[in-house]
Design a protein that fits this description.
about 15% helix; 2,3-Dihydroxybiphenyl 1,2-Dioxygenase, domain 1; about 300 residues; 5 helices; single chain; alpha+beta
Length: about 300
């Protein structure tokens, strides 16, 4: 069993409108836009990162907003909901805020004894706020105070026809099963701290998901550095998984593989972080380009639509 993985690093989803996406996560949810860059493989599309003050691992939701993209089809083989930690007792205030902002499908829930509030994101993706005694400091640069602000990820929930293979893989990756409730198996990294929970929803009769706007593209798990990442890669290869070479994503190093359940997994390093090319006080303010796309800057700055302020 691996010991290098500490929990979630980031979750990356697809969107359809960069301005609407930016407004939702900064103005409505109160997260900080910590980076405005482009998709490595499609540089005419933004890659937007939202998180806490520094974009700490375990706090960052990222999006590829492809203009006009059609909605994804929910189903199995995907991350069905992304959960954020909020202070205990704050879900009522959040429900009022979301309703005032026109957010749809706001639903109070309970899972494993936790008070939750689920709702639709800007492209119908399911997002969840979970009351938690989370010690992390929130970003409060907007109009949401510390008594209510999001702390970072709480969990991610995967929809699967059969949870067996994914549960076994997560066990190999260092996760332990905490319990099962209403068809949901909960796993967590022992001692992993916040953002260490993964829920597996078993839906044996559901159809397979089709990706589009609102779909999660991949889920990333955190390791401290490149040395730990290489240890994880070698262990996965030895177990028979097809794992990509290490890829430089500017703000972290990444490897990818796809388990039998269908959800694309990434293992990402905590280094070097988002301050490598911007000072902390000005994260997310200017367009940052990967070096291989810097020669396209003039064209991209004309092509990419303005999306508003960083906070």
């Amino acid at each position: 069993m691996l010991k290098q993985i500490t929990g979630l690093h980031h979750v990356t989803a697809l969107g359809s409108d960069a301005r609407r996406n930016n407004a939702f996560f900064t103005d409505i949810l109160g997260l900080r836009r910590v980076k405005k860059t482009v998709n490595f493989d499609a540089p005419d599309v933004y890659h937007l990162y939202y998180g806490d003050e520094t974009g700490s691992p375990g706090s960052v939701m990222t999006y590829f907003p492809f203009p006009g993209a059609g909605r994804g089809k929910p189903g199995t083989g995907e991350v069905g909901a992304t959960g954020f930690a909020i202070p205990e007792g704050s879900s009522t205030a959040w429900a009022e805020r979301l309703a005032q902002k026109g957010v749809t499908a706001i639903t109070p829930e309970e899972r494993f004894g936790e008070t939750r509030l689920s709702f639709d994101g800007p492209d119908g993706e399911r997002l969840v706020l979970v009351e938690s005694a989370d010690p992390r400091a929130p970003w409060t640069g907007g109009d949401i105070g510390a008594e209510q602000a999001i702390r970072g990820f709480h969990s991610a929930s995967m929809r699967l026809r059969d949870v067996g293979a994914t549960r076994e893989l997560l066990g190999f990756m260092g996760y332990e099963t905490l319990g099962r409730e209403n068809g949901v198996t909960r796993l967590a990294v022992p001692g992993g701290g916040p953002a260490a929970i993964v829920d597996l929803e078993e839906l044996p009769m559901a159809g397979h998901a089709a990706q589009g706007a609102g779909s999660v593209h991949h889920i990333a798990f955190a390791v401290e550095n490149r040395a730990r990442q290489l240890e994880v890669r070698e262990a996965l290869l030895d177990t028979g998984y097809q794992v990509t070479p290490v890829i430089d994503r500017d703000y972290f190093w990444a490897i990818y593989f796809r388990p039998p359940g269908g959800v694309l997994f990434e293992v990402a390093t905590n280094e070097p972080g988002f301050t490598r090319d911007e000072p902390q006080d000005h994260l997310g303010e200017t367009l940052k380009l990967p070096s291989q796309h810097e020669h396209l800057r003039a064209r991209l700055e004309r092509h990419l639509a303005p999306i508003g302020d960083a906070a």
